[in-house]
Amino acid sequence: MNQFPWACIASSIAALLLAAPHAVADTFGSGSSAFELVFVDIGAPGNPADAPQRLGSVSRAFQISKYEISESQIAKAAALGAFSGRAIDDVLAVQRGPDRPASGISWFDAARFANWLNHQVGAQPAYNFDSLGRFQNWTPDDPGFDVNNLFRNSLAVYALPTTDEWYKAAFYDPVSRSYSTYATQSDDPPTPVTQGVDFGTAVYQQEGPAPVHLAGGQSYFGAVGQSGNVLEWHETEFDFVNDTRTGARNVLGGDWRVAGTAIGLSSSLGTGGVPDIQPLSTGFRVAKVPEPSCLAPALFAAACSMSRRRRARHCPACPAV
To answer: Model-level pTM?
Structure first.
C-alpha cells in the first residue's frame, strides 16, 4: 500500500509562507477607461531584514504590482477624475507612449492614484488629502490611524509600497532566505537590454525606458523591472519616520540612464526626492494588502506550484509528476 505523501503536505504547508511567481489582475475604471493591474504575491511573512541595509523585513503577506504603472493607466485614471479634473499633461511632466512607465510624476500624484484605486473598490483612501488638496498626516481621530505610519491608513487596500515592501519584493529569495544584489535574482550585474524579460537582464545604458511589460528580468517573486527602466517612488520618508508632509521620500531601482557599472541598479544605492517634484526618470508601482481570506488561496496555489517544481530538492519522498 502506498503511504500518504505526508512529506509533500509538509512541504506545501511550509511553502505557504513563501511565494512563487503567481499573478492576479484587478480591474479598475469603466468603458474605454477600464484597465487592469497585475499583482504578484509577496509571501514569507516575518522574513529577516537584509543585514547590510537593514531593510526588507515585512511582518505580513502582501502583493505588489508586477509592472510599473504605465502612462496609459494614469491617463485612464485621469479621465475618470483621479486627479481632481487635472489632465494627464499636468500629472506627467513627460510622455513617451501609453505602455511606457509613468515617470515625471510627483509622489503626491502617485499617492492620489493609489487613493483612486481604493475609491474604485469602496475602500478607505491610503493617504489624507484635505479639501484644498494638501497632503496631511492621519491623526488618532481618524479610523484606520496607525501610530507607526502617519502616512498610510491601515484600512486601505492599495498604497505606495513602503521601502521594506519594495525592497523585499525586489531582492528577497524566500527559498534561501537571503537577498540578492539585483532585482534579477542574482548578485551578478544584469545584462543591459533595450527591452525584454529574459532572465538576468535589465533596462539600463539606454536612451529611454522600455514598455512596462518588457522592463527586464523578474525578481524571485515575479515583479518586472525593479532594477532599471525607471526609478520608483516609495511611500517611506527618507529618514524612515513617515511624519513630515513635505519631507523627501525614498527612491530606488536605478533607471535607463545608468551607464557603465550596474551598481546604480543595486540594493545598496538609493536616493530621495521631495514629494511635489516631477523627476523625469522616476515612476512607481502599487502595493496591495488584501484580506487574509482573499490572499490565502493564492498563496496555496503558489505553494502547490513551488512544491511541484522543487520536489526533488524539498520533497524527495514524493512520486514524480
So the answer is: 0.86
